[in-house]
Design goal:
The chain is an alpha+beta fold. It has 13 helices and 17 strands. Strands 3-4-10-9-8-5-11 form a 7-stranded mixed β-barrel. The relative contact order is 0.13.
């Protein structure tokens, strides 16, 4: 606004001054004044453009980036991975349409996932006081809980924090900010040196009930929490051993949570709450995975999921770096429905039997579940055909490490090259666009087509018989991954699964400050700083050149006008002289 006002006022002043000069002074003076005013205007314009550069870089670009980030995140297809179990507490477990029926426990449908892999459990180890450690003698001070599927656990790190608890004053069960108070975070001197300060993160404890987990964690974060422990309800009969089989899912708004949270049993929580009311309780948080020389990862997804394709695009570069030490196996969400179900006629399934079906990614749009199944099989064939064994070191031993370069090239570009909403069918998700993309990345198309013809039924059957706990799921070394599906966070979790951390991980991971929330990286397309500066410099030069040309034109015009006026004056004088002579 200031820049615009300055330019408008400057132009107005120049115009007014020129009018006054032309009226008051003779033409020669007017020409000199005009030249000076143009030169001043050029200098001021350059200064104003410099101010614009600073304003644009510091303010406007930041505002545009924030707006784009909000729009991108709001349009993401993040969905809750399980159905709400006990309104209003919203404790969820991993449910699929093809999952076993949950058994009723504690007034809610609780699914004990005995056949599913164990989670990367949130491990809490009591450090002080000693009398509290002795209350957990059997586990040597360790408390196991179920990590929420939202938020960002501290994979690969061991973080110290103090427990704080505020009693619910308004009987809202920690669902609103006014319901409880907690002390602010403080710093404590370490034993090594009184000059060094050890920052303990704030771990706020809340009780389950009356609202969703995401709501409780969001309120705790606003009160200064760096992590949250959710204590189970008093009427629940879940024990610490049951926590490993419980999935704590979000209510559809988990993408707004960037701190870790863990559900613990009421018995463990009761001891911690009582201790935190008497003295300061320091605990260690850790998320440990089984370790091996080679990390094996399995990802369940849908080939038409924007969320999955976004993750694969961001993870592809990291996967290339880890190609010699990590195995990756894609899986796809396939389910079956009753052949009499009306949905079978909406092209959700591969045929009328309803044995193999997939989600419709765009509702009433042109993409169907049948097309998603075909793309699922194409991708499975692509991965199977192009994966090759990598050279392994003696430390890895007998483990085989395989990597499919063309598959990852394809997956990295699929979301952008073949979007679901492309207006042109040739550029839209489907066989035609897939074939075009396979040619671009060097996929062996004839072999993929042969594989699809020969293995479609077998591949779909295998995927349906081996579902995960959620349509979007990740397993690392046989254990469930918990947390947001972010490329950097997943890489941290993978690198924590090595017996000896390889050099590839050291090049990918930087130290994480546990006091700073983990935010997902949302890619925003736009001009770089150098591009912006080049553009502004070009505009400045064009304006400057235009003003100089205008100055030359003005001087030439003034000289022509002056010459004509002089000639007219001379002719007039000569005419008068002739009359006097006559």
């Amino acid at each position: 606004v200031v820049v615009v006002v300055v330019v408008v006022v400057l132009v107005f002043v120049v115009v007014r001054v020129l009018k006054v000069v032309v009226v008051v002074f003779d033409t020669v003076v007017a020409v000199n004044v005009v030249v000076v005013m143009v030169e001043v205007f050029v200098v001021v314009s350059v200064v104003v453009l410099a101010v614009v550069v600073v304003c644009v870089y510091v303010e406007v670009v930041n505002v545009v980036v924030v707006v784009v980030v909000v729009v991108v995140v709001s349009r993401s297809d993040t969905r809750p991975c399980a159905r709400s179990l006990d309104a209003p507490a919203t404790l969820r477990v991993g449910l699929l349409r093809h999952a076993a029926e949950a058994r009723r426990r504690g007034g809610a449908h609780m699914l004990l996932l005995a056949s599913q892999p164990l989670p990367a459990a949130g491990q809490i180890r009591v450090m002080t006081p000693d009398w509290l450690v002795r209350q957990f003698t059997e586990s040597m001070g360790r408390i196991d809980g179920s990590t929420a599927t939202f938020g960002a656990p501290f994979y690969g790190d061991r973080v110290l924090g103090r427990l704080v608890y505020g009693e619910s004053r308004l009987n809202h069960s920690h669902c609103v900010e006014e319901d409880y108070d907690v002390p602010k975070p403080v710093e404590f001197a370490s034993s090594a040196s009184s000059n060094e300060q050890v920052r303990l993160i704030n771990i706020i404890m809340v009780r389950r009930g009356k609202c969703s987990f995401t709501t409780k964690v969001k309120v705790a974060y606003e009160k200064g929490a760096h992590a949250v422990l959710i204590v189970d309800r008093e009427d629940s009969d879940l024990t610490s051993k049951d926590m490993a089989n419980i999935i704590v899912a979000d209510d559809g708004f988990g993408d707004k949570i960037h701190i870790p949270s863990v559900l613990i049993s009421k018995m463990d929580g009761r001891k911690l709450i009582q201790a935190a009311g008497r003295t300061q309780v320091v605990v260690e948080l850790a998320w440990d995975l089984p370790t091996n020389h080679v990390v094996n990862t399995d990802l369940w997804m849908s080939s038409a999921s924007r969320e999955s394709n976004k993750f694969l695009k961001e993870f592809a570069a990291k996967r290339r770096t880890l190609n010699a030490v990590v195995n990756f196996q894609p899986h796809y969400a396939v389910f079956g429905i009753d052949g009499t179900d009306p949905q079978i006629y909406n092209d959700l399934c591969s045929d009328e039997t309803g044995q193999y079906c997939a989600e419709d990614p765009d509702g009433v749009g042109p993409i169907t579940g049948k097309e998603v199944l075909r793309e699922d099989v194409r991708q499975l064939c692509m991965h199977m055909i192009h994966k090759v064994a990598r050279a392994s070191s003696s430390e890895i031993g007998s483990h085989v490490v395989e990597y499919a370069a063309q598959y990852w090239d394809y997956m990295e570009r699929l979301g952008e090259s073949c979007p679901l909403d492309a207006p042109n069918p040739q550029d839209r998700f489907g066989l035609e666009c897939s074939t075009k993309l396979m040619k671009q990345v060097g996929v062996d198309i004839p072999r993929v087509e042969d594989c699809v013809r020969a293995n479609t039924t077998a591949y779909l059957k295998k995927e349906r018989e081996h579902p995960a706990w959620s349509p979007r799921a990740l397993r690392i070394n046989g254990w469930r991954y918990s947390g947001i599906l972010d490329a950097d966070l997943v890489t941290r979790a993978i690198c924590s699964g090595f017996i000896t951390v390889p050099s590839e991980c050291k090049s990918l991971i930087t130290a994480r400050d546990p006091t700073i929330p983990f935010f997902e990286k949302v890619e925003v397309k736009g001009v770089s700083f150098m591009q912006m500066m080049t553009w502004l410099l070009g505009v400045t030069l064009v304006i400057f050149a235009g003003l100089l040309l205008y100055k030359r034109y003005l001087k030439k015009e003034m000289r022509t006008t002056l010459r004509e006026e002089v000639m007219l004056e001379v002719q007039a004088q000569m005419g008068q002289y002739s009359k006097m002579g006559a």
